[in-house]
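Moderator note: this is an archived Q&A kept for reference. The question asked for a predicted structure of one protein chain; the sequence and the answer are reproduced below.
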Amino acid sequence: MARILYIEDNEQNLYLVTFILEKAGHQVIQARDGWAGLDLAESAAPDMVLLDFQLPGMDGMEVLRRLKASPFTREIPVLAVTSYAMVGDRERLLQAGCSGYIEKPINPETFLQQVERFLSA
């Protein structure tokens, strides 16, 4: 079982991802914006962060930058879970510090396998 922080503002995405991960035995901590996500990343010490990049207030790129700059959170793997799907977006997010990239809309049949592959790495 892993403790996973999911930073996402869309209720439907929050529900679906939380359902899939909790059904598999993982604990999901939810944050609906970047500020709350940063606070929870430090206080809850998650094993992984799933990060949307289109967030209100502070976008996902700034959240990622701050996570990787902090000595308390820099080692936590961050998976981009995003609808950014233009040519070069995946590479740009990986270069910025993401450990992996999952494109939205997520495929419920393969999502858990994608997440667990990075948990075991």
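Archived answer notes: The chain has five helices and five strands.
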